[in-house]
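Your task
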Amino acid sequence: MKKLYLIIILIITVFVMVGCSAMEEEPYNDLPHVYGNLYYDYETMTYNSIHSSDIFYNIGDVKEDFIILHQEMEGISYTSNEIDVYHAFFDKLLLLADATGQSVGVIMNYNSSDFKTALETHSIEVTLNDVVTFNDVKSALETYKSQNNNPSIRKIDYISYILDQELTNEDRDHLQFLQDEYLELVDRNIVLDLKTISYENLILSLESTGKTYTEIQLVSLKSAYDLLNLIYQRNS
């Protein structure tokens, strides 16, 4: 009888835990949320959201995102000199991608000899460091792919890394408010380029739905806009 009682308790506990887990995850799976994740795309070599209606959609940057990925996966931290080496490599990788019309993900399938030849063919200076870094990056990417890994990072952690500062609770609230308001636009088939839109035009677009905002809400939207703008302009 005691065994039966314990089994019943165990079954109930499992159902409760599963239910709670579903309740916690559901908002983040159904709609973009500031506490959700960004996922690494091997083709573009950037982190991205799975939702095109996410204010963080296409916010990734090739030069930064592999460094973030590698540090997250390996539990390491690069020095500023090491980061400079990676940045120099990715500058040339992006130049080559532009010259060939191929994605950076495709170019990373080259072998080191083909990579070196391609740089020379397109008159892009190549150094020993470039070839060594190419091999390091290629090896790391192949390892992660072979693990059937779909690397992800929390949006708030990604932003904190990019801005080199922790987000406050107010920062998160501002970003979530902008996300909620932007979703209402998308529901009306109004899609904005948040990378280039001015704050004034953003507010005009949001108010085109018939909404009016209080001064406090406008301050919140401006704070969120400024944070996004800092991220988008990081390599400008």
